[in-house]
Structures are given as structure tokens and as C-alpha cells.
Specification:
The complex is a heterodimer of chains A (542) and B (132). Chain A is α+β, with helices and mostly antiparallel strands and 542 residues long. Chain A has three domains: 2-241, no CATH class; 289-349, no CATH class; 350-533, Heat Shock Protein 90 (2-Layer Sandwich). Chain A is 40% helix and 18% strand. Chain A contains 16 helices and 18 strands. Chain A has helices at residues 18-23, 34-42, 49-53, 69-80, 110-114, 188-199, 210-241, 253-262, 265-304, 306-309, 314-345, 358-369, 371-376, 395-411, 467-477, 497-502; strands at 2-4, 10-12, 63-67, 89-95, 122-127, 131-135, 140-143, 169-172, 182-185, 354-357, 380-384, 389-393, 418-426, 429-438, 481-490, 493-496, 517-526, 532-533. In chain A, the strands form five sheets. Chain A has a six-stranded mixed sheet. Chain B is of the alpha/beta class and 132 residues long. Chain B has a domain at 6-60 and 78-91 and 110-132: Rossmann fold (3-Layer(aba) Sandwich), CATH 3.40.50. Chain B is built from five helices and five strands. Chain B has helices at residues 14-26, 37-46, 63-73, 96-99, 118-128, and strands spanning 6-10, 30-34, 51-55, 82-86, 110-113. Chain B has a five-stranded parallel sheet with strand order 2-1-3-4-5. In chain B, strand 1 (6-10), helix 1 (14-26) and strand 2 (30-34) form a beta-alpha-beta unit. The longest helix of chain B is centred in the N-terminal third of the chain and has 13 residues, at 14-26. The relative contact order of chain B is 0.16. The chains are: A alpha+beta (542), B alpha/beta (132). The interface between A and B is large, with 40 and 42 residues.
Chain lengths: 542, 132
């Protein structure tokens, strides 16, 4: 009930009498939080969600929330049902949790009496493999969880989630050496954030052997099992003690099978994770495609609508047609990358090597195709030794790889700068190097740029997030490799991060210098693809 | 002859900006292009336009939101109507259109979800410039 206290306020109360019920009658228009009262009795956690609510309409905020399994579960349910403000929560850190505790009337609790504990002498409480009380005397008392069930929140005894299955990352002290936290990375987002936090030095990773890791996992699994068993035991007790009607009539065999299947918690958690990843991928893909589609629709609709077209001269109409064509080509590349990525994942990417001429069949065709983009940015594509190098490769895949590398160099290169590339024989195969001047790549991202959906994109240019990922896949399919290198251009010299590290006195870089130019290089190396070098023009170019 | 009205176009996609500008110029408007929030504010320092067409998601999801809130918080620019144009609905499960006009969240006068057709854009522009 919400009982009126004055004209503007109410307080939550549980009515147990007729009078109490009548006193709470009438309209009142301020916020009535009467369910909070009930919630308090059953809450199992520190109430962080009301804290999220205070951000109210500032929708552009993105929050990371640390929570117990019940809180993360609540957030996930809210997100599925689009209940505000869960939309601003973009990352969740889940705590391992056996239960929360209520410390009211502590003196009456069994474990206090059994271990002769004076609550005033407790210095610190910790939960690891058991419940630990560090006393002022320096002694630590270890109490098994079974002995402290009477101070656990009532709902905790029914909870089946120990390892916070629905969080992006689950963390807890269990299994880790002192001073460290066990972390279970569950989503791609968590992987990225964790990796970046490690790279930035915010997190230090302990060196854990495979054996120790297996032991940690086994310990966590024990606790997962313990919590589930307790939930089942508690549910059984409730069933026995309370009137609870079982569904009448025998279940059809088919229904039994279905219920059995969805009761597998692990399966559900995995499905939930996969679903979230799938939703994210769909969102990502449709956003990237719809951006390009927007340009096509604007151009074509203008040309198709006489009301608009009659106002555009021939030159403008041609520009719009070329604009639409350029966007269509971009879209074609994106679709090709998505399809290739999907096929690569399911092992369905065909690999049919044939004899091809890299300069003639690949590089020249790709650069011709990308000519409008090069022109738009006033860039020049320079390729050394690009003619007449014959190799045995999958033509379609190699074209995707070169297209992605050259397109990438254009997209992230500065306007009016050259793109330098070279094609050389290497280990009975070839090495293709491509360098642009532009945003460069930070040293800690040199590997991450090849991750699926990973994009170092401070300019917000957009794209599939798959371009370089696919280049690596394709290189690997040809038993080759791709690596990135980057650094600064000092007095016309290209200085990599490694060179600076090795010779810090020789190369002094002022990273705050606005005039400082950066470069990025990609090196695609494919050995043993039976090259045959022919022709006389060995220093051709585009 | 009526004075030519000016529209500031803010979008991180140069090819979309180009198409948008050709269409609007065909209808007699003067267009100014900005590829990011910084360029947008630079242009506003020079001269105030009659309308701003803004993409919500430039370098970050909230870039467009930040820009429109800053514009509406500034006495000099708060009177300029904003048409927000975006494909963001495809990525996030919120109905941005229904929130248009909320002062703390989406203080814009109008909202269009990309892809948008040329004539549809022109009609919204005319309405915002009170030409209908």
C-alpha cells in the first residue's frame, strides 16, 4: 500500500487490517514506491538500478554496470523488453555470487553462537571458497557456506546462477591468488575492453599455467554446482511446505522433451550469448549498409522524381548517377566481405587456385575500380614492380584481399597524399606492401585491426569491420600472412614504433605536434605460390 | 526577389553530403557542408544558417546528440531549426523519432530516418523553413 502522509507525500506500508486498507485509499499523484517496501524484504543486492534511473533522459550516456547475477539478469530482461533505462547500459561486469547477506539480529544467528564470535571484533568480511571473518586479533575464521544460510537473502537460496552467466565479463576472487581477480570473458565486447585495458596498463594479467587454469575452472564449476543444488533443495522444500498446484494432466512426450531441453541452464546461457552477438552483428551490418543505401536512395530518387530531376542540369544529374554508382560499388564490396566472412566461418569458402597475373589481373583492375575514390581524395596510387608477376592463387579471394588493402589505404589516408605499394618475389611466392599517410595505427592496435568487427576508426568512416579480418583469413588460406606496421614520418623518413624503441635518442617524436605525420603499412606475404616472373618492364606503375 | 536561404549540412559521409547538397541547391537553397561537429561549429562562427540538417551518428553514437544539445543551449544558435537525419534506428532498438523535441534528449524540430528520398527531404525542409 501507499499510505498518504501529507498532501504531497506517501509512505509505503503493508496493510494488515481493514482500517489500514481504507487509510491508504484515495488519489495521490506523486511517486508511490510502495513495492520498494516489499522489494527491501526480498532484495538480494545493493540497489544499483535506482542509481541508473537517476540518469533519466540523458540517453547519450553509456554506462557499465557492476552487478550480482540477479541484477545482471534483471538488466538483460529489461533490455530484451526495451524497458528504460536499461538502454544506456552497454556493458556489464558480473560478480561471482553465492548469496548476499542480511546482518540484522546477528547475535541470534547459528554460526555466531557456534564459533563464539563477538560481532564487534570482526574487522573484515570476505567471501572466497568459504565465508571468512577476519578478526581484530588477526585470526581469520573460515565458515562453510552451509552454516550461514540463515543470513542469506531468502531469494538467494533459490538463485541458480553463481558465475553470472549473462554478464559480458564475470569476475570474482574464487580461484585466484591473493591480489588477483578471476575473470571470465563471455562476449566479444568484453574481449575488446579487457584487451584494451591490459594494453593500456589498467589490468595486469597473472601468469597462470594451463594446469592452474584448469584447477580454477574446476573450482568455479564446483561452486556453480553447489549453488544449483542448493536452489533445487530450496525449491523442493518450498514445494513441500507450500500449496503449489502442479499442472494437471500428463504432459505429452513432445512437451516433456521440449521442457527438458530449455531447462539446461548452460544451453540457455550460451543461446543468450549467441543471440546477443547475432543481434549485435545484424545491427552492425544493417547500419553500415543503410548508411551507403542512404546515399544511393538520395541520388536515384532525385533522378527518378521529375519534380527534382527537372531542376538539375545535365552535369549535376551525371554527378548524382556517379555518386549512386560509387555507393553501389561500395555496397557490393561490403556484401562480398560479409558473405566471404560468413563462408569462412562455416568452412565453406571455396579455395580454387589458378594461375593469375597479380599486376594485370588483380592490382590494375582493383585500382581502376577504386579510381573514383582516389580522385575524390586527390590521392595517387604508386606501385613498384606491379607488372607481370604470375602466381597460383585463388583469383577471387586474392582480389578481395587486394581490394580491401587498397580500399583501406584510401579510406584512412589523408587527402592529397600518395599511396605507395610494391610487389616483390619472395620465398618462391610474393610480398605485397602498401603504405599510406593518414591516421596511422596506434602501436597497441597493430594486431587488433585484424579482429572480426574490430575497427580503429577515429574518423568514423565506417565499413564492414571485416576488411582486414578477411585479408588475414585469405592470407592464411594461401599459407601466407599479413601484418601491420606503423609509425611516424620524420623528415621524409618512415620511422616505425620499433625503430623508435630501439633508438630512442636518434628518433625523438613529439606526439603532440599537430604537424606530425603518421603512416600505416600492411605487408601481405604468400610464399610458395610458384611465381613465374616474365616480361621486361619490371618497374611499371599505375 | 526573396533572399536565398542557407542550410548547413552536417554528415560524415561526403558522398551523401554531395547528393544532399545537389538536391537542395536545385530547389534554390544555398548549402554549406561540414563533415564533423568541429567543422559544423566553425561554420556557425562564420555565419548562421536558416536550417541545420544533422546526422546523429558521426564519429560516435552521441556526436549528433551532443551537437544538437550544444546548439540548443547556445542563445546564438538555439533558434535555428534542426532536422536530424540518421540511419541510427537500424542499430539501436529505440524509437528516436518519437523522442524528437524532448529538450533533454533530442532537442530537434524534426527527425527523418535514412534512407530518405530527395523529395521527402525537400518537403521537410520547406516545412521547417515555413515555406508551405
Amino acid at each position: 500500500m501507499s499510505k498518504r502522509t501529507d498532501l504531497f507525500n506517501r509512505k509505503p506500508e503493508i496493510a494488515t487490517t481493514r482500517e489500514g486498507l481504507i487509510q491508504a485509499a484515495g488519489s495521490q499523484f506523486s511517486e508511490a514506491s510502495h513495492l520498494d517496501e516489499m522489494g527491501k524484504k526480498y532484495s538480494t543486492y545493493v540497489p544499483v538500478l535506482p542509481a541508473v534511473r537517476m540518469f533519466g533522459p540523458k540517453r547519450s550516456l553509456r554506462l557499465a554496470v557492476v552487478g550480482t547475477p540477479c541484477q545482471i539478469m534483471a538488466i538483460r530482461k529489461m533490455q530484451v523488453l526495451n524497458i528504460l533505462p536499461s538502454d544506456i547500459i552497454f556493458f556489464t561486469v558480473g560478480l561471482f555470487c553465492m548469496q548476499c547477506f542480511t546482518f540484522d539480529n546477528l547475535m541470534e544467528k547459528g554460526f555466531i553462537k557456534k564459533h563464539h564470535i563477538n560481532p564487534e571484533d570482526i574487522l573484515k568480511i570476505n567471501v572466497k571458497e568459504d565465508f571468512r571473518l577476519k578478526m581484530k586479533s588477526g585470526v581469520t575464521i573460515h565458515i562453510p557456506f552451509e552454516e550461514i544460510e540463515d543470513i542469506a537473502g531468502p531469494a538467494c537460496l533459490l538463485c541458480r546462477d553463481f558465475a553470472n552467466d549473462f554478464a559480458d565479463i564475470s569476475v570474482g576472487g574464487l580461484g585466484s591468488p591473493e591480489g588477483y581477480t578471476t575473470s571470465m570473458i563471455r562476449t566479444t565486447l568484453a574481449k575488446r575492453i579487457f584487451t584494451e585495458a591490459v594494453n593500456e596498463g589498467y589490468i595486469k594479467i597473472a601468469d597462470v599455467s594451463e594446469v592452474d587454469k584448469a584447477e580454477m575452472l574446476s573450482l568455479i564449476e564446483t561452486f556453480v554446482e553447489k549453488k544449483r543444488e542448493r536452489a533445487e533443495r530450496t525449491t523442493d522444500i518450498q514445494r513441500l511446505s507450500g500449496p503449489r498446484e502442479e499442472p494437471s494432466g500428463p504432459l505429452e512426450e513432445k512437451e516433456k522433451g521440449f521442457l527438458g531441453a530449455i531447462e539446461g541452464d548452460e544451453l540457455c546461457a550460451e543461446c543468450e550469448r549467441l543471440n546477443r552477438h547475432l543481434n549485435w552483428v545484424i545491427g552492425f551490418v544493417s547500419h553500415e549498409l543503410s548508411g551507403t543505401l542512404g546515399t544511393i536512395v538520395m541520388n536515384i530518387s532525385a533522378l527518378a522524381d521529375p519534380q527534382v530531376a527537372e531542376r538539375l542540369d545535365e552535369d549535376k544529374q551525371k554527378r548524382m548517377l556517379l555518386g549512386a554508382l560509387g555507393s553501389l560499388k561500395l555496397m557490393q564490396d561490403m556484401v562480398r566481405n560479409y558473405l566471404a566472412s560468413s563462408k569462412a566461418k562455416s568452412g565453406q569458402l571455396d579455395f580454387s587456385p589458378t594461375k593469375i597475373n597479380l599486376g594485370r589481373d588483380i592490382i590494375r583492375k582493383v585500382t581502376k575500380r577504386l579510381e573514383p575514390s582516389l580522385k575524390m581524395k586527390g590521392m595517387k596510387f604508386i606501385c613498384e614492380h606491379c607488372d607481370e608477376l604470375e602466381v597460383i592463387c585463388d583469383e577471387r579471394l586474392i582480389r578481395v584481399a587486394f581490394n580491401n588493402l587498397i580500399n583501406n589505404a584510401i579510406k584512412y589516408g589523408s587527402a592529397n597524399t600518395p599511396i605507395r605499394s610494391s610487389l616483390r618475389e619472395w620465398k618462391n611466392g610474393f610480398k605485397f606492401t602498401i603504405t599510406n599517410e593518414g591516421i596511422g595505427i596506434p602501436e597497441d592496435k597493430l594486431e587488433a585491426v585484424f579482429d572480426e568487427f574490430s575497427r580503429f576508426d577515429p574518423l568514423g568512416i565506417g565499413g564492414t569491420g571485416l576488411g582486414l579480418y578477411l585479408v588475414r583469413k585469405i592470407a592464411n588460406m594461401h599459407k601466407g600472412s599479413i601484418k601491420a606496421d606503423a609509425g611516424y614520418i620524420l623528415k621524409g623518413e618512415f620511422i616505425t614504433y620499433e625503430m623508435i624503441r630501439k633508438n630512442p635518442d636518434k628518433y625523438i617524436v613529439d606526439s603532440g605536434d599537430k604537424e606530425l605525420r603518421k603512416f600505416a603499412t600492411f605487408i601481405l606475404s604468400i610464399p610458395n605460390c610458384a611465381t613465374v616472373r616474365s616480361g621486361s618492364n619490371k618497374r611499371g606503375g599505375n | 526577389m526573396a533572399e536565398q536561404k542557407s542550410i548547413l549540412l552536417v554528415d560524415d559521409d561526403p558522398s551523401f553530403l554531395d547528393a544532399e547538397a545537389i538536391v537542395l541547391e536545385g530547389f534554390g537553397y544555398r548549402t554549406i557542408k561540414a563533415l564533423n561537429p568541429e567543422e559544423c561549429f566553425e561554420e556557425l562562427k562564420k555565419k548562421l544558417p536558416d536550417l541545420i540538417i544533422l546526422d546523429v551518428m558521426m564519429a560516435r553514437l552521441d556526436s549528433g546528440f551532443d551537437v544538437c544539445r550544444r546548439l540548443k543551449a547556445d542563445d546564438r544558435t538555439k533558434q535555428i531549426p534542426i532536422l536530424m537525419l540518421t540511419a541510427v534506428d537500424k542499430k539501436y532498438p529505440f524509437n528516436f523519432g518519437s523522442a524528437a523535441g524532448e529538450p533533454d534528449w533530442l532537442p530537434v524540430e524534426d527527425f527523418l530516418d535514412k534512407p530518405v528520398e530527395a523529395m521527402e527531404l525537400v518537403e521537410h525542409v520547406r516545412k521547417l523553413l515555413k515555406e508551405e
